[in-house]
Amino acid sequence: MKLRDFLIGVATGLAAAVIIKEASEKVSPFVPAGQVLENIKKEFKRDAPIDGSWIFMKTEDYTNGIMTIPVYRGGISRMNEGELQTFEFAADARSGVVVELTEV
Length: 104
Description:
Elements: H1 3-26, H2 33-45, E1 50-55, E2 60-63, E3 68-80, E4 83-92, E5 98-103
Antiparallel strand pairs: 1-3, 2-3, 3-4, 4-5
């Protein structure tokens, strides 16, 4: 094997590694936080009008005792029978499914 052929192979491998790394960083495995919030708001609106809502755009780890998953944390408030109800939730960042819902 000639040195030139070896160096061409190394350069090609490095270029491919850089391209794959850049492409994988651009593709996010998570559902956008805004979309998760909109889906949760849509479910809450079935029962009563929404008064306010919020969501953290950055994921955090959530442990249920068996496994750890990335979640978005957020909250929703609504008026129900003249009383303000406030809920906080944790939604799976990969699927958008609510894994924890508590009334505050």
